[in-house]
């Protein structure tokens, strides 16, 4: 190992390799973007909300939930519509059609309402082709520190990006 002004040459080689990999053009590490499974590409209508749910409509969202969650439904509708404009502008993608947001009252209802299998830890899920977002009501979130509006924004980004990439899947490196 050769030392240059007290710095070992091996360390400089490792640093150079790390910088080369970090700044390498994207074509070197280009992911493969396979087509999404056919069932996720179909723009089915979202499932109807439970019969006792109310719906709050806003310019870009319909937020469905239990009557006792009226204040949360209204807050999500107002926040979500403003977020759709901001996020679409930031991502430079079209807003597209109205998004249905479902606010589940229980973990069982959260799992049952959506068309796919949600991770047990998820506070929300998004299905771009359906234009549907599923959220857990604050009562069942277990005191999560992340505000529900932040979770909604995260899911709306999935919707906007997912729609923009259809019929391809959003690359996994971009998805989360």
Describe the structure.
The chain is of the alpha/beta class. Helices cover 39% and strands 16% of the residues. It has helices at 9-22, 38-41, 70-91, 107-113, 148-165, 172-175, and strands at 3-4, 7-8, 54-57, 61-65, 99-104, 124-127, 132-136. The strands form two sheets. The protein has a five-stranded mixed sheet with strand order 3-4-5-7-6. A two-stranded antiparallel ribbon has the order 1-2. A hairpin with a 2-residue loop joins β1 and β2. The longest helix has 22 residues, at 70-91. The two termini are 42 Å apart.
Coarse morphology: globular
Number of β-strand runs:
7
β-strand percent reads: 15-25%
N-to-C SSE string, H for helix and E for strand: EEHHEEHEHEEHH
Number of helices: 6
> Main beta sheet: strand number and arrangement?
5 strands, mixed
Fraction of residues in helices?
A: 25-40%
Spatial separation of the terminal alpha carbons = 42 Å
Structural class call reads alpha/beta
**Order of neighbouring strands in the sheet with most strands:** 3-4-5-7-6
- Detail the poorly predicted runs: 9-43
Q: What would the average pLDDT be, to the nearest integer?
A: 79
Radius of gyration: 21 Å
In short:
The chain has 176 residues and is α/β, with parallel strands linked by helices.
What distinguishing features does this structure have?
176 residues; five-stranded mixed beta sheet; 6 helices; 39% helix
Set out the fold topology:
Layout: E1 3-4, E2 7-8, H1 9-22, H2 38-41, E3 54-57, E4 61-65, H3 70-91, E5 99-104, H4 107-113, E6 124-127, E7 132-136, H5 148-165, H6 172-175
Parallel strand pairs: 4-5, 5-7
Antiparallel strand pairs: 1-2, 3-4, 6-7
Helix pairs in contact: 3-5
């Amino acid at each position: 190992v050769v030392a240059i002004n007290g710095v070992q040459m091996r360390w400089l080689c490792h640093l150079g390799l790390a910088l080369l990999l970090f700044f390498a053009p994207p074509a070197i590490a280009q992911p493969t973007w396979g087509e999404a499974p056919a069932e996720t590409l179909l723009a089915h209508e979202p499932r109807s909300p439970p019969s006792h749910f109310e719906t709050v409509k806003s310019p870009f969202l319909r937020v469905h939930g239990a009557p006792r969650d009226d204040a949360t439904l209204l807050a999500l509708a107002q926040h979500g519509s403003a977020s759709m404009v901001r996020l679409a502008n930031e991502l430079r993608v079209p807003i597209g059609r109205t998004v249905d947001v479902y606010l589940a009252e229980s973990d069982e209802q959260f799992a049952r309402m959506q068309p796919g299998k949600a991770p047990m830890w998820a506070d929300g899920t998004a299905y771009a082709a359906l234009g549907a977002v599923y959220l857990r009501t604050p009562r069942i979130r277990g005191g999560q520190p992340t505000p529900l509006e932040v979770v909604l924004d995260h899911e709306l980004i999935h919707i906007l990006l997912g729609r923009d990439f259809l019929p391809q899947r959003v690359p996994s490196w971009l998805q989360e």
